[in-house]
Write a structure and sequence with these properties.
By secondary structure, the protein is α+β, with helices and mostly antiparallel strands. It has one domain: Cathepsin B, Chain A, CATH 3.90.70. Strands 1, 2, 5, 6, 7, 8, 9, 10, 11, 12, 13 and 14 form a twelve-stranded mixed sheet that branches. A two-stranded antiparallel sheet has the order 3-4. Helix 5 packs antiparallel against helix 6. The longest helix has 20 residues. The chain starts with a helix and ends in a 9-residue tail after the last strand. 43% of the residues are buried.
């Protein structure tokens, strides 16, 4: 049977079952000029706020893990985003120094790095490691990022002509000052845990069962390749599928009760978090006057058909870059029957009129997705 036809059948069956199960839960949302009927909203945890920190990848990844725990009938957790961030800063410092400064050092990352933290050193609740030791109520990382960057550059410049054995100890001292000492043990619901035992006994996820997927025609389809984006600093391999399979996998995931971590470009003019929409108008943005751009969101219109060639060009010419990570938690149809995805952002609940969520059109997903992160079970046999 043709692979794409098989996927279409699977999506159709999953969507039919999902609609039956959620008929009573379906609600209408009006956003700008669009009226949405929810197809399925997967259980997930509340919107949080990364505030002034470049840690969206951890917020998206942690939100994804929390939803996976709920999917497996586990408890509703509030996990610490700064725990994977701490681990990432340590790893990146080592990479920067070992490669003599020829390495991307900064706060950015990808959602898969949360699962790698889970595998290597476990995870902890927010109460055990909130990362707020410097007098702020919310994360403000500008000073810390600058100090860490200056430190690793000084170590890499190597004025002594050789590394001392204590440079990482000194570096961790900075992280301790800003994010707090790493807890060896903590209490959760009256029991004592280590980060690893908490992951094993409470979270209960197998990190090997998750895969990062993308779609670029410049690489062989249905094979792994190294996606060259700055935030993929740990050199993770991504699985390359055809563009129609990328969106079909998202549809399969949502319809079967899974969520999707989403790395995407948000510099595109079609991304408007304030208005709660991300879309690709039929006309090129250069052909729409600035005075008329708001009308694209206020009046429902036809969107462009995004091809693999357009997607590849957007990656090649830097118009689609790895700007932001979020969490896809549902699907909806607009008044014309077009598919949209409900996305949980990490810019707090008061960042727009929709509690920090937004609706993203399928054309926007096709054009501006850098990668998705999903459970292997939603990838149809023959694709994985």
């Amino acid at each position: 049977m043709n692979r794409n036809f098989l996927i279409f059948l699977l999506v159709l069956v999953a969507g039919f079952n999902g609609n039956n199960q959620l008929q009573a839960q379906s609600t209408n949302d009006t956003v700008g000029g669009y009226k949405f009927t929810n197809i399925k909203i997967v259980p997930h945890t509340p919107v949080k706020d990364q505030n002034q920190s470049g840690t969206c990848w951890s917020y998206a990844g942690i939100s994804f893990v929390e939803a996976e725990v709920l999917r497996q009938s586990g408890p509703e957790l509030d996990l610490a985003e700064m725990w994977p961030v701490r681990y990432a800063y340590e790893q990146r410092a080592e990479g920067y120094v070992r490669l003599h400064g020829s390495f991307n050092f900064g706060p950015g990352g990808e959602p898969h790095q949360v699962m790698e933290t889970l595998a290597d050193r476990g995870l902890v609740p927010e109460d055990a490691y909130n990362g707020l030791t410097y007098g702020e109520d919310k994360h403000v990382h500008g000073e810390m990022d600058h100090v860490l960057q200056t430190f690793v550059k000084a170590i890499s410049d190597n004025e002594n002509r050789k590394l001392t054995p204590v440079w990482m100890t000194a570096y961790n001292g900075i992280l301790d000052a800003y994010l707090g000492d790493k807890p060896n043990n903590f209490s959760w619901e009256g029991k004592s845990y280590t980060p690893v035992s908490f992951a094993q006994q409470i979270i209960k996820l197998d990190p090997s069962q998750y895969v990062e997927i993308t779609s670029y025609q410049s690489k062989p389809y249905y094979k792994n390749f190294f996606l060259m984006i700055p935030d993929n600093w740990d050199y993770e391999m991504y699985y390359n599928v055809k563009l129609e399979d990328l969106t079909n996998i998202i549809d399969l995931a949502i319809n079967q009760g899974y969520t999707v971590a989403w790395a995407a470009d948000v510099s595109d003019p079609g991304f408007n978090h304030k208005k709660g929409l991300a879309l690709v108008p039929e006309k090129d943005w250069n052909d729409i006057t600035r005075a008329s751009r708001d009308s694209v969101f206020d009046v429902a219109g036809i969107q462009r058909t995004v091809t693999p060639q357009m997607r590849q060009q957007a990656y090649d010419n830097y118009s689609a870059t790895d700007d932001h990570s979020m969490h896809i938690i549902g699907m909806a149809k607009d008044q014309d029957g077009n598919t949209w995805y409900k996305v949980k952002n990490s810019w707090d609940t008061d960042s727009n009129d929709f509690g920090g969520y937004l609706w993203v059109s399928q054309p926007y997903i096709r054009l501006n997705t850098l990668a998705i992160y999903v459970h292997r079970d939603v990838v149809p046999q023959g694709l994985n």
